[in-house]
Amino acid sequence: MNGLLLALQFFTSIPIRKELPMDRKDVTAMYVALPLVGGIIGLAMYGVAALFVDVIGTGTLLTSVFVVVAGIALTGGLHLDGFADMGDAFFSYRDRVKRLEILEDPRIGAFGTMALILLIIVKIALFEELIHRNTGMLPYFIAVPLLARAGMNVYFSTTRLAKEKGIAYFFKEKLATGTLMASSIGMGLAIAVALGVVIHSVILPVVLLIVVSGAVLLFRSWSLKHFGGVSGDLCGAYIEGVEVLLWLAIIICI
Q1: 236-239: long-range contacts (C-beta < 8 A, 24 or more apart)?
Q2: How far apart are CA 54 and CA 78, in angstroms?
Q3: For residue 20, what pLDDT band results from cuts at 50, 70 and 90?
Q4: How far is it, in rounded angstroms, from Cα 30 to Cα 48?
Q5: Which of 112, 167, 248, 252 could share a disulfide with 87, CB 3.0–4.6 Å?
Q6: Distance CA 35, CA 12 (A)
Q7: CA gyration radius for the chain?
């Protein structure tokens, strides 16, 4: 239970006003629970979509805007912040040390702003397309954020740190990597199988697993090349980017 509460406390805007232990088992449990928290966020976003479409009766575009806003509100914009910082750092075309300094800078620059705007527009467009089709959306809303966070756990576990300080350093030092890897891979496979059973398809779950696995490999290599390793901001950027890829894969396949 402490792991779930820690995941809610650190990775969502849900107020958990309780001082929780941060031992090795607790931090590991927090990351183990993170994909489940993603599923909860996805379920809430589906609830917003159903509310506006079925109860209020708004159009798909406006509904999509509120779905995206709900996701941002529930995460406190944490992952979007990482995506924006990554955009500023990478497109600065500076050396690795300077890029890491830009990642740490709380201010947002022109490239980060452009990356953020583009990401939000793409997400609104993807949700609008999905809601317009209205093809049993609930399983997808649960599977996508869960798979993205399970993949992020694998990426975080298998990539060396870009810097030996900060929150990512604190958490990784306390992680039981083997336990986290096993639980994340198992959870990803389980949700893929469950999705296949619900939608009566093998192809789409396999495609989603390929997307997540490919993203881990490619983003890990890219992070090592351009930043020297993983950071908290890059983990957030991974989640945002992979969610977009997964939604795109779903729209193409259904």
Answers
A1: 236/78, 236/79, 236/80, 236/81, 236/82, 236/83, 237/79, 237/82, 237/83, 237/85, 237/86, 238/148, 238/151, 238/152, 238/155, 239/79, 239/82, 239/145, 239/148, 239/149, 239/152
A2: 30
A3: confident
A4: 26
A5: 112
A6: 12
A7: 18
Q: Which long-range contacts (CB under 8 A, 24 or more apart) does 93-96 make?
A: 96/226, 96/227, 96/228
Rounded to 5 degrees, what are φ and ψ at 174?
Answer: -100, 0
The answer to whether residue 21 scores a pLDDT higher than 90 is no
Q: How does residue 165 score in pLDDT terms, banded at 50, 70 and 90?
A: confident
Alpha-carbon span 60 to 226, nearest angstrom: 39
- pLDDT band per the 50, 70, 90 thresholds, residue 217: very high
End-to-end C-alpha distance for the chain, whole angstroms: 36
How is residue 76 written in tokens?
Answer: 């406190």
